């Protein structure tokens, strides 16, 4: 293991440490050298048809092959099409094809419930049977190819079964995160014109019960088009059931036939819709299709997680987000992997819950979010140190920029400097990972997502559209499609082009800021609306945050711009201190001096506000919109706060603003 550290500065701008995979890891890896990666990447860009045809042959089973591989336009009439004329079925790829070989009796899905004593394992054969039965149930209720099915469920195996059953009969699933409100659910049901809802009576979260069915009922009272609502009995407690509309899952399943042939889907038939928030307006129904998505999810899964047949793979995301779609369900199951699914949260009943699960199932590959890593880091090293984590061989992160401090903690305390860390950058819109190290051959740098995946050609451009120089921050855009890219916004044909292709015609606009260093590594700096311009200098809020979090007394920090008379924008930092640390005026000065020293005077915060918590979505993303408003003093116009995990946080932030210096 090679580790170099030059200088003591921990900020992204000056991060120089680099870690190569151990020779033991590299020798067994799918790709073993940077040169091998470079050759494959170049071929994927220069000869995309040849490259993706090869991946499609190798990783996916087809009922009928394609007439053309890649066809697209990123200008004028924007469209993307892969594998024209080909036929396949996603559930066939995730299940049936594994039944002809030894994987038949391999664990496909291991489910760990929130209560420690509740767990279930499905082999590929068993999962196939359940999926076929539920597909028959859906058919018997009149659900047909192309119909939309909304799914509003906690993290239970029936959720995976539902998705694959929809895919089997060609119905389009639309998962709404189980933590969303009834209003959010209603809007998404109406937008997708679904006539079927699958839910559960209750859910469990950190020892509390969630009233899933009650929320569903409230939503459905405004959705007259919904004809059927299927309810899983997650806990043994009754809930309201409307005769003629509501059915118990177990009752329908007990009478269902396990014979259900997979529908032959066109490569460009939609597989699912997933709603995601943009910077403005109502959530977009991001639509993914079957062929390209399956090829991309499977290929990225195999290469980036370097999956081997004996591994247990655990992605901690909720299936309500794209990460769960691609890396709990479609990628792993299509690859014949053992995918672990967890119902609980990282810190309940105590802060080592994740590590207990890793120990129990001997997890080999672990994929989580920086926000979870920082929270666990705050709880202290004794929790991971108290568990046997020796089964781990690869660690991954996703969802937001990871600050080098958290990366190093993950690498050292969790991975014992033995496991490569893959920082994977992607979006709901991209279907799968676009920028990430390949763990056997790309040395990692803490805080960098490193290099593009095959077929992906990202560029950093300036405001005027010209290409940025090495290390110069700019907009991250992508100059050609890859098979997993979204195909449109459901029900709104113009919105795809208008959201992603009007800023710089010819490029897919990611909405993220980034820079590329002299080694060709990408450093993500947050959404471009989070890039602040201080006295004409562009700064990533992530950079200032990284620097703050690198201070030994800081647990978490969020930085936003606010209007500043002289500088244009000033820097406003919200800081959560570590347990046992006193939040004093002295400490504010110390932090300002610290950031000045680490990044430079340009980055020193103008105001620091201590807060015990930050406003986050239920998926753990900090809602900067609210922080910006509070920083700007626009506290009468905070907008919609219903998507917050804990709305009370906002009140305490507003109160605390007066004390910010
Ligand atoms: C951010 C999640 C830095 C980014 C898969 C992106 C990241 C948005 C990373 C998409 C990463 C995701 N480093 N930033 N490794 N991964 N992001 O749609 O701003 O929920 O645009 O998809 O998350 O979030 P989404």
TrEMBL record:
Keywords: Acetylation, ATP-binding, Ligase, Magnesium, Metal-binding, Nucleotide-binding. Its EC number is 6.2.1.1. Catalyzes the conversion of acetate into acetyl-CoA (AcCoA), an essential intermediate at the junction of anabolic and catabolic pathways. AcsA undergoes a two-step reaction. In the first half reaction, AcsA combines acetate with ATP to form acetyl-adenylate (AcAMP) intermediate. In the second half reaction, it can then transfer the acetyl group from AcAMP to the sulfhydryl group of CoA, forming the product AcCoA. GO terms for molecular function: acetate-CoA ligase activity; AMP binding; ATP binding; metal ion binding. Signal peptide: none annotated. HAMAP family: Ac_CoA_synth (MF_01123). Acetylated. Deacetylation by the SIR2-homolog deacetylase activates the enzyme. Belongs to the ATP-dependent AMP-binding enzyme family. Residues 97-490 form the AMP-dependent synthetase/ligase domain. Residues 543-621 form the AMP-binding enzyme C-terminal domain. It catalyses: acetate + ATP + CoA = acetyl-CoA + AMP + diphosphate. The keyword Kinase does not apply. Residues 37-94 form the Acetyl-coenzyme A synthetase N-terminal domain. It comes from the Bacteria. ATP binds at residues 399-401, 423-428, 512, 527, 538. One of its GO terms (biological process) is acetyl-CoA biosynthetic process from acetate. Transmembrane segments: none annotated. It comes from Pelotomaculum thermopropionicum (strain DSM 13744 / JCM 10971 / SI). The keyword RNA-binding does not apply. The modification N6-acetyllysine is found at residue 621. Its cofactor is Mg(2+). It holds the Pfam family AMP-binding. This is Acetyl-coenzyme A synthetase. CoA binds at residues 205-208, 323, 347, 535, 596. InterPro entries: Ac_CoA_lig, ACAS_N, AMP-bd_C, AMP-bd_C_sf, AMP-binding_CS, AMP-dep_synth/lig_dom, ANL_N_sf.
């Amino acid at each position: 293991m090679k580790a170099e550290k030059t200088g003591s500065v921990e900020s992204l701008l000056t991060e120089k440490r680099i870690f190569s995979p151990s020779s033991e890891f590299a020798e067994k890896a799918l790709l073993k050298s940077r040169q091998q990666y470079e050759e494959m990447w170049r071929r994927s860009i220069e000869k995309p048809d040849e490259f993706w045809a090869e991946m499609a042959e190798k990783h996916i089973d087809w009922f009928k092959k394609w007439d053309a591989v890649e066809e697209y336009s990123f200008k004028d009439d924007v469209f993307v099409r892969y594998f024209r004329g080909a036929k396949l079925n996603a559930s066939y790829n995730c299940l049936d094809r594994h039944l002809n070989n030894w994987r038949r009796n391999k664990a496909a899905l291991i489910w760990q419930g929130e209560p420690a004593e509740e767990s279930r394992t499905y082999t590929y054969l068993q999962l196939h049977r359940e999926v076929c039965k539920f597909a028959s149930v859906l058919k018997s209720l009149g659900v047909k190819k192309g119909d939309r099915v909304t799914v509003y469920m906690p993290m239970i195996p029936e959720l995976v079964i539902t998705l694959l059953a929809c895919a089997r009969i060609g119905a389009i699933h639309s998962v709404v995160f189980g933590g969303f409100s009834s209003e959010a659910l209603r809007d998404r049901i109406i937008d997708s014109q679904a006539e079927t809802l699958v839910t559960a009576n209750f859910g469990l979260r950190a020892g509390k019960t969630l009233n899933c069915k009650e929320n569903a009922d409230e939503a459905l009272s405004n959705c007259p088009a919904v004809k059927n609502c299927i309810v899983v009995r997650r806990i043994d407690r009754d809930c309201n059931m409307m005769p003629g509309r509501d059915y118990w899952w177990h009752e329908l399943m007990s009478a269902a036939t396990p014979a259900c042939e997979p529908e032959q889907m066109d490569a460009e038939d939609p597989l699912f819709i997933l709603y995601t928030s943009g910077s403005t307006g109502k959530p977009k129904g991001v639509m993914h299709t079957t062929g390209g998505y399956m090829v991309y999810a499977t290929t990225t899964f195999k290469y980036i997680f370097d999956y081997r047949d004996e591994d247990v793979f655990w992605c901690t995301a909720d299936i309500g987000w794209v990460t769960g779609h691609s890396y709990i369900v479609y990628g792993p199951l299509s690859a014949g992997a053992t995918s672990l699914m967890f119902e609980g949260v990282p810190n309940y009943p105590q802060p080592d819950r994740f590590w207990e699960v890793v120990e129990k199932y001997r997890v080999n590959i672990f994929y989580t979010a920086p926000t979870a890593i920082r929270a666990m880091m705050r709880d202290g090293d004794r929790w991971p140190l108290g568990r046997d984590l020796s089964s781990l061989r690869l660690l991954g992160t996703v969802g937001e920029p990871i600050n080098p401090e958290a990366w190093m903690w993950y690498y050292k305390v969790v991975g014992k400097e033995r496991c490569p860390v893959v920082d994977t950058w992607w979006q709901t819109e991209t279907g799968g990972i676009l920028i990430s190290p390949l763990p056997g051959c790309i040395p990692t740098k803490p805080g960098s997502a490193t290099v593009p995946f095959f077929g992906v050609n990202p560029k950093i451009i300036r405001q005027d559209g010209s290409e940025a120089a090495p290390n110069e921050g700019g907009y991250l855009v992508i100059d050609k499609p890859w098979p997993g890219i979204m195909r449109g916004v459901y029900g709104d044909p113009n919105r795809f082009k208008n959201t992603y292709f009007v800023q710089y015609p010819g490029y897919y606009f990611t909405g993220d800021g980034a820079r590329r260093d002299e080694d060709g590594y990408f450093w993500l700096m947050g959404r471009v609306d989070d890039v602040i311009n201080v006295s004409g200098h562009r700064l990533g809020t992530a950079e200032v945050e990284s620097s703050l979090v690198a201070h030994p007394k800081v647990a978490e920090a969020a930085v936003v711009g606010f209007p500043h008379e002289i500088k244009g924008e000033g820097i406003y930092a919200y800081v959560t201190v570590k347990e046992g640390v006193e939040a004093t005026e002295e400490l504010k000065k110390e932090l300002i001096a610290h950031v000045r020293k680490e990044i430079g005077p340009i980055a020193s915060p103008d105001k620091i506000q201590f807060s015990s918590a930050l406003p986050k979505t239920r998926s753990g993303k900090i809602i900067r919109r609210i922080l910006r408003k509070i920083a700007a003093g626009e506290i009468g116009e905070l907008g919609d706060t219903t998507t917050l995990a804990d709305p009370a946080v906002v009140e305490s932030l507003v109160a605390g603003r007066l004390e910010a210096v």
